[in-house]
Specification:
about 190 residues; mainly alpha; Fumarate Reductase Cytochrome B subunit; 5 helices
């Protein structure tokens, strides 16, 4: 880690935060549409491919974000913030990072064990492999049911945690009027 703590996040952390955030928002919208809206099979196929492409992009960006976070000190939380609130913020960030990894990984696992064997081609250009161990399973039906269940349930937990994260940021900005949200906003000093 580098020296003293900055007052706000650096440009790389801000860029990765918002790329991941917009990617996850897209994944939520596309994922819910794929599962809950009636649509023709062609559109559903295109949405699944886009969902997989954005999911892998979020996974890779999250890995970069975690590496960046481990090598760069984040700004300190306000000294006036109660200790329990600081612990809650730390725990929720840990869970967000964990879900940024596990939700895409369970999606990748789900695709890898699918009995349909539909290849993943990121953005229609880059072939993406199945997870090697999972793609060769003999009983794909059970694995497919388990990974689908896990991916969907973790997705809903992720949505709830993101809502909590956003509510906390807005609380800090509009109610407490501190600089927590401004530290992560681009183009604001």
């Amino acid at each position: 880690m580098r020296g003293s703590r900055p007052e706000r996040y650096d440009a790389a952390a801000i860029l990765l935060h918002w790329v991941i955030g917009l990617g996850i928002a897209s994944l939520i919208i596309i994922g819910l549409a794929m599962v809950h809206l009636p649509m023709n099979i062609g559109l559903k196929f295109e949405l699944y491919q886009l969902h997989k492409s954005i999911g892998i992009t979020v996974l890779l960006a999250a890995l970069l974000r975690i590496i960046w976070r481990l090598t760069h000190k984040p700004p300190e939380l306000p000294s006036a913030m109660p200790g329990l609130e600081k612990k809650a913020a730390s725990a929720s960030h840990f869970l967000l990072y964990a879900l940024m990894l596990t939700v895409p990984l369970t999606g990748w696992a789900m695709v890898s064990v699918s009995p349909y064997n539909i290849p993943t081609v990121l953005y229609g250009v880059i072939p993406w492999p199945d997870m090697p161990i999972l793609s060769g399973l003999a009983d794909k039906k059970t694995a497919d049911a388990a990974t689908t269940f896990l991916h969907h349930k973790l997705g809903y937990i992720f949505i709830a945690l993101i809502g909590l994260h956003m509510a906390a940021a807005l609380r800090h900005h509009f109610w407490l009027r501190d600089r927590i949200l401004r530290r992560m906003l681009p183009f604001i000093r």
